[in-house]
Amino acid sequence: MVNVVIVDDELPALAELGFLLSKDARIDAIHQASSGAEALRILQSHPIDALFLDIHMPSLSGLDIARVISRFSRPPAVVFVTADEDRALEAFELRAVDYLLKPVRTERLTESVRRICELMEDGAATPDVITVDQGGISRMIRRDEIRYVQAQGDYARLHTAEASYLIRIPLNDLERQWADAGFLRTHRSYLVAMDQVTQVKLGSGRASVLVGEAELPVSRRHLSQIRGKLEATRLRPGQ
What we know:
The chain is built from seven helices and 15 strands. By secondary structure, the protein is an alpha/beta fold. The two termini are about 35 Å apart. The relative contact order is 0.09. Keywords: DNA-binding, Phosphoprotein.
Protein backbone atom coordinates (compact mmCIF):
# COMPACT_ATOMS: atom_id res chain seq x y z
CA MET A 1 0.00 0.00 0.00
CA VAL A 2 1.21 3.48 -0.93
CA ASN A 3 1.01 6.54 1.31
CA VAL A 4 0.98 9.76 -0.72
CA VAL A 5 0.96 13.52 -0.42
CA ILE A 6 -0.70 15.57 -3.14
CA VAL A 7 0.38 19.19 -3.32
CA ASP A 8 -1.43 21.91 -5.26
CA ASP A 9 -2.33 25.49 -4.39
CA GLU A 10 -5.52 25.21 -6.48
CA LEU A 11 -8.09 23.51 -4.24
CA PRO A 12 -10.32 22.12 -7.03
CA ALA A 13 -7.29 20.43 -8.62
CA LEU A 14 -6.26 19.10 -5.21
CA ALA A 15 -9.71 17.63 -4.60
CA GLU A 16 -9.93 16.09 -8.07
CA LEU A 17 -6.56 14.37 -7.82
CA GLY A 18 -7.42 13.11 -4.34
CA PHE A 19 -10.67 11.66 -5.66
CA LEU A 20 -8.93 9.87 -8.54
CA LEU A 21 -6.26 8.43 -6.26
CA SER A 22 -8.85 7.25 -3.74
CA LYS A 23 -10.30 4.92 -6.39
CA ASP A 24 -6.97 3.07 -6.73
CA ALA A 25 -6.86 0.07 -4.38
CA ARG A 26 -3.06 0.36 -4.10
CA ILE A 27 -3.32 3.76 -2.40
CA ASP A 28 -3.58 3.85 1.39
CA ALA A 29 -3.31 7.24 3.10
CA ILE A 30 -3.82 10.40 1.03
CA HIS A 31 -2.54 13.62 2.60
CA GLN A 32 -3.35 16.94 0.95
CA ALA A 33 -1.30 20.13 1.07
CA SER A 34 -2.00 23.48 -0.56
CA SER A 35 1.56 24.79 -0.19
CA GLY A 36 5.11 23.55 -0.25
CA ALA A 37 5.64 24.39 3.42
CA GLU A 38 2.59 22.35 4.40
CA ALA A 39 3.85 19.42 2.33
CA LEU A 40 7.23 19.46 4.09
CA ARG A 41 5.49 19.45 7.50
CA ILE A 42 3.52 16.37 6.47
CA LEU A 43 6.75 14.66 5.39
CA GLN A 44 8.21 15.28 8.85
CA SER A 45 5.28 13.70 10.70
CA HIS A 46 4.03 10.87 8.45
CA PRO A 47 5.61 7.96 6.54
CA ILE A 48 5.24 8.98 2.90
CA ASP A 49 6.04 6.86 -0.14
CA ALA A 50 5.28 9.34 -2.94
CA LEU A 51 4.48 12.97 -3.67
CA PHE A 52 2.27 14.27 -6.46
CA LEU A 53 3.52 17.82 -6.98
CA ASP A 54 2.15 20.76 -8.90
CA ILE A 55 5.02 22.77 -10.32
CA HIS A 56 3.75 26.37 -10.13
CA MET A 57 2.99 27.34 -6.53
CA PRO A 58 3.75 30.48 -4.50
CA SER A 59 6.91 30.49 -2.38
CA LEU A 60 8.06 26.85 -2.69
CA SER A 61 7.37 25.43 -6.15
CA GLY A 62 7.05 21.73 -6.88
CA LEU A 63 10.59 21.78 -8.27
CA ASP A 64 11.83 23.41 -5.06
CA ILE A 65 10.21 20.68 -2.97
CA ALA A 66 11.76 17.99 -5.16
CA ARG A 67 15.20 19.54 -4.67
CA VAL A 68 14.72 19.56 -0.88
CA ILE A 69 13.65 15.92 -0.62
CA SER A 70 16.41 14.79 -3.01
CA ARG A 71 18.75 15.32 -0.06
CA PHE A 72 16.81 12.87 2.13
CA SER A 73 18.55 9.56 2.85
CA ARG A 74 15.50 7.73 1.45
CA PRO A 75 13.49 10.27 -0.56
CA PRO A 76 9.91 9.44 -1.54
CA ALA A 77 9.05 9.01 -5.20
CA VAL A 78 8.03 12.19 -7.03
CA VAL A 79 5.36 12.59 -9.70
CA PHE A 80 4.85 16.06 -11.15
CA VAL A 81 1.28 17.05 -12.05
CA THR A 82 1.12 20.24 -14.08
CA ALA A 83 -0.39 22.07 -17.03
CA ASP A 84 3.10 23.13 -18.13
CA GLU A 85 4.65 20.89 -20.81
CA ASP A 86 7.92 22.83 -20.85
CA ARG A 87 9.31 21.78 -17.46
CA ALA A 88 9.67 18.05 -18.13
CA LEU A 89 13.44 18.32 -18.62
CA GLU A 90 13.95 19.87 -15.18
CA ALA A 91 11.53 17.38 -13.65
CA PHE A 92 13.36 14.31 -14.87
CA GLU A 93 16.73 15.79 -13.98
CA LEU A 94 15.34 15.67 -10.42
CA ARG A 95 14.70 11.92 -10.90
CA ALA A 96 10.93 12.21 -11.16
CA VAL A 97 9.08 8.92 -11.56
CA ASP A 98 6.52 10.47 -13.90
CA TYR A 99 5.25 13.74 -15.38
CA LEU A 100 1.47 14.09 -15.72
CA LEU A 101 -0.26 16.83 -17.64
CA LYS A 102 -3.51 18.37 -16.43
CA PRO A 103 -6.29 17.43 -16.78
CA VAL A 104 -5.07 14.12 -15.42
CA ARG A 105 -6.33 11.02 -17.22
CA THR A 106 -7.19 8.04 -15.05
CA GLU A 107 -5.15 5.59 -17.12
CA ARG A 108 -2.02 7.77 -16.86
CA LEU A 109 -2.47 8.16 -13.11
CA THR A 110 -2.83 4.38 -12.82
CA GLU A 111 0.47 3.99 -14.66
CA SER A 112 2.16 6.44 -12.29
CA VAL A 113 1.00 4.44 -9.28
CA ARG A 114 2.29 1.25 -10.94
CA ARG A 115 5.72 2.83 -11.36
CA ILE A 116 5.76 3.90 -7.71
CA CYS A 117 4.82 0.38 -6.61
CA GLU A 118 7.62 -1.08 -8.74
CA LEU A 119 10.17 1.16 -7.06
CA MET A 120 8.85 0.24 -3.61
CA GLU A 121 8.87 -3.50 -4.31
CA ASP A 122 12.18 -3.76 -6.10
CA GLY A 123 14.13 -1.00 -4.42
CA ALA A 124 15.14 -0.16 -7.97
CA ALA A 125 16.76 3.04 -9.10
CA THR A 126 14.73 5.53 -11.08
CA PRO A 127 14.65 4.26 -14.69
CA ASP A 128 16.84 5.84 -17.35
CA VAL A 129 15.30 8.65 -19.34
CA ILE A 130 15.99 9.84 -22.87
CA THR A 131 15.89 13.48 -24.00
CA VAL A 132 14.04 14.02 -27.27
CA ASP A 133 13.15 17.17 -29.18
CA GLN A 134 9.63 17.52 -30.52
CA GLY A 135 8.31 20.70 -32.04
CA GLY A 136 11.08 22.77 -30.49
CA ILE A 137 10.33 21.39 -26.99
CA SER A 138 12.72 19.11 -25.11
CA ARG A 139 10.88 16.15 -23.63
CA MET A 140 12.01 13.31 -21.42
CA ILE A 141 10.77 9.78 -21.98
CA ARG A 142 11.58 6.68 -19.94
CA ARG A 143 13.61 4.05 -21.73
CA ASP A 144 11.34 1.32 -20.36
CA GLU A 145 8.44 2.94 -22.23
CA ILE A 146 10.16 2.37 -25.59
CA ARG A 147 8.74 -0.68 -27.36
CA TYR A 148 11.01 -0.72 -30.37
CA VAL A 149 13.37 1.46 -32.38
CA GLN A 150 13.29 1.87 -36.15
CA ALA A 151 16.30 2.88 -38.23
CA GLN A 152 15.89 5.93 -40.44
CA GLY A 153 19.28 6.61 -42.00
CA ASP A 154 21.57 8.25 -39.46
CA TYR A 155 18.53 8.72 -37.21
CA ALA A 156 16.47 6.36 -35.08
CA ARG A 157 12.74 6.57 -34.36
CA LEU A 158 11.75 5.57 -30.82
CA HIS A 159 8.27 4.05 -30.64
CA THR A 160 6.25 4.10 -27.41
CA ALA A 161 2.63 3.12 -26.89
CA GLU A 162 1.49 6.71 -27.39
CA ALA A 163 3.90 8.36 -29.83
CA SER A 164 7.20 8.17 -31.72
CA TYR A 165 10.26 10.37 -31.48
CA LEU A 166 13.15 10.92 -33.88
CA ILE A 167 16.67 11.14 -32.43
CA ARG A 168 19.97 11.62 -34.22
CA ILE A 169 21.64 8.36 -33.19
CA PRO A 170 22.31 5.45 -35.58
CA LEU A 171 20.59 2.18 -34.72
CA ASN A 172 23.97 0.39 -34.46
CA ASP A 173 24.99 2.71 -31.63
CA LEU A 174 21.75 2.13 -29.73
CA GLU A 175 22.13 -1.62 -30.18
CA ARG A 176 25.47 -1.50 -28.35
CA GLN A 177 24.36 0.95 -25.69
CA TRP A 178 21.04 -0.74 -24.86
CA ALA A 179 22.00 -4.42 -25.03
CA ASP A 180 22.09 -4.70 -21.22
CA ALA A 181 18.61 -3.16 -21.01
CA GLY A 182 17.01 -6.05 -22.92
CA PHE A 183 16.95 -4.61 -26.44
CA LEU A 184 17.71 -7.09 -29.24
CA ARG A 185 18.30 -6.48 -32.93
CA THR A 186 15.68 -8.41 -34.91
CA HIS A 187 16.36 -6.92 -38.34
CA ARG A 188 18.70 -4.40 -39.93
CA SER A 189 15.96 -1.80 -39.41
CA TYR A 190 14.62 -2.76 -35.96
CA LEU A 191 15.78 -2.94 -32.36
CA VAL A 192 13.15 -4.42 -30.02
CA ALA A 193 12.60 -4.35 -26.27
CA MET A 194 12.10 -8.07 -25.71
CA ASP A 195 9.93 -7.59 -22.62
CA GLN A 196 7.46 -5.75 -24.88
CA VAL A 197 7.09 -8.68 -27.28
CA THR A 198 3.69 -10.35 -26.93
CA GLN A 199 3.92 -12.90 -29.74
CA VAL A 200 6.58 -14.53 -31.90
CA LYS A 201 5.80 -16.07 -35.26
CA LEU A 202 8.40 -18.56 -36.50
CA GLY A 203 7.11 -19.88 -39.81
CA SER A 204 8.93 -21.46 -42.70
CA GLY A 205 10.83 -18.79 -44.56
CA ARG A 206 9.40 -15.91 -42.51
CA ALA A 207 9.61 -14.82 -38.89
CA SER A 208 8.23 -11.81 -37.01
CA VAL A 209 7.51 -10.46 -33.53
CA LEU A 210 4.40 -8.66 -32.34
CA VAL A 211 5.05 -5.56 -30.26
CA GLY A 212 1.84 -3.80 -29.31
CA GLU A 213 -0.06 -3.55 -32.58
CA ALA A 214 3.09 -3.59 -34.73
CA GLU A 215 4.32 -6.77 -36.41
CA LEU A 216 8.06 -6.43 -36.98
CA PRO A 217 10.21 -8.65 -39.21
CA VAL A 218 12.92 -10.96 -37.90
CA SER A 219 15.72 -11.53 -40.40
CA ARG A 220 17.49 -14.87 -40.84
CA ARG A 221 20.68 -13.31 -39.56
CA HIS A 222 19.07 -12.50 -36.21
CA LEU A 223 16.71 -15.45 -35.92
CA SER A 224 19.08 -17.67 -33.92
CA GLN A 225 19.57 -14.93 -31.32
CA ILE A 226 15.80 -14.52 -30.94
CA ARG A 227 15.37 -18.29 -30.62
CA GLY A 228 18.07 -18.35 -27.94
CA LYS A 229 16.35 -15.60 -25.99
CA LEU A 230 13.03 -17.44 -26.14
CA GLU A 231 14.64 -20.70 -25.04
CA ALA A 232 16.30 -18.98 -22.07
CA THR A 233 12.95 -17.64 -20.84
CA ARG A 234 10.88 -20.75 -21.48
CA LEU A 235 9.20 -22.32 -18.46
CA ARG A 236 10.07 -25.97 -17.84
CA PRO A 237 8.59 -28.58 -15.49
CA GLY A 238 10.44 -29.05 -12.23
CA GLN A 239 12.91 -31.85 -12.07
